[in-house]
Every structure is written in C-alpha cells, then in structure tokens.
Amino acid sequence: MQPALFDSSIYITALRRGDDAALALRRSAADAPLWLSAVVLEELYAGAADRDRQVVERLERDFNRAKRILVPNLSDWTQAGRVLARLAAEYHYEQIGQGRLTNDALIAMSAGRLGIRVITANERDFSRLAEFRSFQWQVTLSLTHLRR
After folding, report:
1. What pTM was estimated for this model as a whole?
2. 76 and which of 68, 82, 103, 110 could share a cystine (Cβ 3.0–4.6 Å)?
C-alpha cells in the first residue's frame, strides 16, 4: 500500500474533536505506512492550544521513533520555489498568496519525492500545486472517510 501523510488540515480537525481523534488518525491508515511531515509538525506546534501541545509532542515522539518524519531537502525547497513562481504567474498571486502556499508546496514536493500520498481537506491549494508538479494527493472532508 502506498505510504501516506496527513496535511495539517486533517490533524487540526482531529484535534478539535479531541485528543483521541488526533491520535487515532495513525490507526486510520493501518494498511499503509503513515508519515508525518516536519512542515505539518511545525504548523501544529505553531497553532496548538496548550491543551493540544501534549498530543502534538506525542505525535512527534511516535513518528520520530518510527523514523517516519519527512523533512524537506534542498531539492524540495527549490522545487517549491519554482512551483510557487509558476503558480503566481498563472493565477496572478501576490507575495502574500505565495507565502500562504509555501508550507503546502513544501509538503507536496517532499511527499512527491518519496511517493507519499498527501491526504488533505484543502482541495483548492493542493489542486493548484498539482497543476505544476505531479504528486499523489486526495481530499477528504471528514475523518469518518479515513476509518476503515
């Protein structure tokens, strides 16, 4: 089964439902190796309420222990810059629009490099990124669709 990772949008939805939902996400992809993007981890720490910080720390610890944290490399950064420049030209994005997409571009480029499927609730941004760089992704609007 193809490895997968959840975008921040999925973890944020789960955290809003409670600690158990966020930690249960790991079981929802039981038949596929699940990865955690370092970019997603950064976003989770940056936005975590005090009550959610322990869950984020546990996610980091567990994925680090399993050696499944995906860290963007130099190529991912340069590919992200190229894709953002093309996207800005095509859709007339200003710097703010490009900046907003930087993290998603890094997630997409690094996942694409290793053939990891990105699961997200953010269809608009990932569909636009996919126009300029091929990577596997899917949209889910509900956590119930992730459980088998």
Report:
1. 0.88
2. 110
